[in-house]
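Help wanted!
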Amino acid sequence: AQKVTQAQTEISVVEKEDVTLDCVYETRDTTYYLFWYKQPPSGELVFLIRRNSFDEQNEISGRYSWNFQKSTSSFNFTITASQVVDSAVYFCALSEAKRGAQKLVFGQGTRLTINP
Amino acid sequence: GAGVSQSPSNKVTEKGKDVELRCDPISGHTALYWYRQSLGQGLEFLIYFQGNSAPDKSGLPSDRFSAERTGGSVSTLTIQRTQQEDSAVYLCASSLGLAGGAGETQYFGPGTRLLVL
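Answered by r_m:
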């Protein structure tokens, strides 16, 4: 069975600090996809990134970066120089890559608060 | 282009009543998903539609829940005889549906907040 664990329930930091959100996953599949979504106070889930299991290159997008390590089954998300607008709940999710198994399995989410 | 839209935004109903929630996917997306977000259970998959294939209903919590998708586009999630534990945010998502949608990015709507009194 697939499982995603986000051990950090809540994180609070001061603006401009760097912060890392942890995500650990379990799957028996060799091919799978990992995602991060942001849920701001408005409630809508906003897509941030998608990675497949064969691509372990780290990715950077502006102040956001992702570290994918298959050896530890982790897909961590770092925000550099955090800003108040980064305050949201962040979800990590896992999807199988085979037809008929399209559902996303989500972690419990990490509530990130950036204080001015 | 327009994103996924859902209606109503909020719904308050009395226990035992039926409710219908609507989802309009992104134009051109053939795969459509329903999820539920509640405090106790987090984000849970409910049902998945892909083109004309039989839907994957494996996440529906009881036979009071059903969904249909007409004309390959708009979907309606129906909850019969609502219970207080059905109170949650119901989220709809869509994806392109290429290769059956496997591993595709799902784009979410704003959700319908359901409160059962």
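OP: Thanks! One thing I noticed: The first strand of chain A starts at residue 3 and ends at 5.
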